[in-house]
Design a protein that fits this description.
The protein is built from 7 helices and 7 strands, in the order E-H-E-H-H-E-H-E-E-E-E-H-H-H. With 180 residues, it is an alpha/beta fold.
């Protein structure tokens, strides 16, 4: 089962939207936003740890992308995460920590804005680089994403999953890249 752990220390919104795009680029899957608050009336990772996951939680029951917020303290969630990873065709774990998290199930892939070195923080090794208003530095290691078209990100943020626009299609390269 393919798993990628996204880590976006400088921009949590980019990390969460990137997680949705990455799952869409895989043709569907599960996004677990480990630091996201619970959504009232919906399951969260914290509630699955407390109550135990159901069979419906552990496998997709329709096409598309499922989103599971962390919902609070997710200590002791490794067993539930392992069961989710085993049951879903693709899983994206989104970390919002400032410090690089330890890898649990797949490569930890940094997601950064492609800004001049004087404006950004240093990246050790390859990363996903999001083009923005500034010209992107040349020869960035990893995957460089195009700027999203107007409307793509607001629709994605509202869970109105867009058709495969160029920004979502560009995330397919992240699945194929040989991450360390």
């Amino acid at each position: 089962m393919p798993v990628i752990e996204l880590w976006s220390p400088d921009d949590r919104v980019l990390g969460r939207l990137g997680g949705l795009a990455l799952a869409l680029a895989a043709g569907g899957g599960l996004v677990v936003a480990l630091d996201a608050p619970a959504i009232p009336g919906r399951a969260s990772l914290a509630s699955l740890v407390e109550d135990g996951p159901t069979r419906r939680d552990l496998t997709p029951h329709r096409r598309g992308v499922a989103y599971l917020p962390g919902g609070g303290d997710v200590a002791g969630a490794d067993a539930v995460l392992e069961a989710l990873v085993d049951g879903w065709p693709a899983t994206v774990l989104v970390h919002g920590d400032r410090r690089r998290p330890r890898s649990r199930f797949g490569p930890v892939v940094p997601v950064r804005l492609a800004v001049p070195p004087a404006l950004g923080t240093a990246v050790d090794g390859p990363a996903v680089h999001q083009r923005c208003a500034w010209p992107a530095p040349r020869d960035l290691p990893g995957v460089v994403l195009p700027r999203p078209l107007p409307g793509e990100l607001p629709r994605l943020a509202a869970f109105e999953i867009p058709t495969f626009g160029r920004w979502v299609r560009a995330w397919r390269r992240v699945w194929r890249f040989p991450w360390p």
